[in-house]
Amino acid sequence: MKATEALHDQGQSLWLDNITRDLLMTGTLQRYIGELSVTGLTSNPTIFDHAIKNSSAYDAAIRKKVKEGMSGEDLFFELALEDLTRAADLFRPIWDRTHGVDGWVSLEVSPLLAHDTASTLAAAKALHARAGRPNLLIKIPGTKEGLPAIEESIFAGIPINVTLLFSHEHYLAAADAFLRGIERRVAAGLDPEVGSVASVFISRWDAAVTRKVPEALQNQLGIAVAKRTYKAYRSLLGSPRWQRAFNAGARPQRLLWASTGTKDPTASDILYVRSLAAPFTVNTMPEGTLKALADHGALGGILTADGGDSEEVLARFAAAGIDAGALAAQLQDEGARSFVSSWRELMDVIASKSAVLDRAG
Length: 361
Description:
Blueprint: H1 3-9, E1 12-16, H2 21-25, H3 28-35, E2 38-41, H4 45-53, H5 59-67, H6 72-97, E3 105-108, H7 117-131, E4 136-141, H8 146-155, E5 160-165, H9 168-187, E6 196-201, H10 203-208, H11 221-237, H12 240-247, E7 254-258, H13 271-275, E8 281-285, H14 287-296, H15 310-319, H16 324-360
Parallel strand pairs: 1-2, 1-8, 3-4, 4-5, 5-6, 6-7, 7-8
């Protein structure tokens, strides 16, 4: 049995952190579903920037849309929705079979809206309507400004992937926004079953402290933060507040591990996958990590609901001068800025390709 199948059998969903037209056209994504137990996927501006910049697979579609008068963000979202609706259709049997627990794809709103709650909500509604697929999650950053948009989107019945979470405090804030939206739906007599995941980024923690802590602490911070967050997740799932919502017909918001590709070339390429196996969670991994897991993966133990040794490990980082709370805020801010940078690069790629293809006729 492949490690991918074993991990899936232990109750964790494996999602691909990638989408390209080539993956769809060559049947590779379908093969990952059939052979590597992949049950969903995520996307972001960086992924689409690389996909469009490094492939000619989008050229014909770009040329056609330019002639139809499209440009910039409108043209990009048309391309993205073409890819993601095809992917959503591939995952739809899984979504149907699991009654909406699994089988999701994700599309992010423009990161330029990160500090504009009203515009984020409007974009989430518009993109979900344009997609016309029930198994499409709209990604909204779990920033201070994003949280109200997450609550309002859930209240409006739009499935949400809360992204850019870096700590258990970030996670708890995202979960609270989700629950407020669900509770308002219950109070209004609306169906409270709205899908959502909360995406906590892992590897960036270790990349941020690589040269700032003793060798004995290398590549341990992200896993410790994840374990602490998993404890908060399990506690919330058993809390009276969540139980009331579930009793009213709501579906739990699932915890998702994001940024699980190993950035340290001296560490195991499946470090974060092996360390973060847990039922009723999602691990969304880059293509290279997925292949490595299938090729030579060996799973470790299952995360425990009590957080394991996370507090002891985090105490050692604090003793080494790492302020986890301040670093979480820094990482979230840097992540938001990085997505904006990728978005601007993506718009530049769209503009330059559009111009070249239009001139070529």
